[in-house]
Amino acid sequence: MSARPPSRDASKKARENGFFKDMEDDPPNSDDGDWIANVPGRPAPYTTTWLTVYGKRTSAPQGSGFAFSVNCEEGGDGAIEMDGQYRELNGKSTPDGRLQKPPVCHIIPWALLSLAMSDFETKNQKIFTEEFKRYVCWGDNSNLRTGHNGCNAGGQKVTVQNATALQIQTAKHFVEKCIIAQKGNVYK
Ligand SMILES: [Zn+2]
Questions:
Q1: What pLDDT sits at residue 34?
Q2: What is the mean pLDDT of the chain?
Q3: Could you tell me the distance, in angstroms and rounded to a whole number, from the CA of residue 96 to the centre of ligand 1?
Q4: Does 23 or 114 have the greater pLDDT score?
Q5: How much distance in Å is there from the Cα of 95 to the middle of ligand 1?
Q6: What's the pTM value of the predicted model, to 2 decimals?
Q7: How far apart are the CA of 149 and the centre of ligand 1, in A?
Q8: Residues sharing a CB contact under 8 Å with residue 15, sequence separation 6 or more, in sequence order
Q9: Is the pLDDT of residue 28 over 50?
Q10: Which of 5, 55, 97, 124 is 20 to 30 A from 13 in CA distance terms?
């Protein structure tokens, strides 16, 4: 079955209306969700996402004042120290001082992945499944990395408005790679 792709405005509206909300597979109140920044329209991560990306963590020696650490790949500024529940210690920009897991950071941001997918949909007159969009966002670990809360929140953000042609091209190549990984079984 083929369907006309929604206009970018319509798909933006669908996202704003919480189109992806029913894709959450985290149980409600699960603290696994606490590391997710509020990015409107972005699909929910998989329940395994955090543990997979932070799988490189190492246990700290006794008496070091923290339980686990891992290098910050987002800012390249050294160790992220965590307590026994994987909550970031001394985290910057932690809402209300509440400890939470350090975030899973995107190398190519969702905004550009979303734009690249919209362009594919328009060009091919087909629309991607929600499962595929989720895979593009969270399914390929080569686009995900560790990061301090502060490193993820700080710095210049790449947006659709300020992205360079190369960044947009890189996002398109990444989506192509995901289509191949899913053997082309990506359209509604
Ligand atoms: Zn950092």
A1: 66
A2: 83
A3: 20
A4: 114
A5: 17
A6: 0.79
A7: 7
A8: 40, 41
A9: no
A10: 124
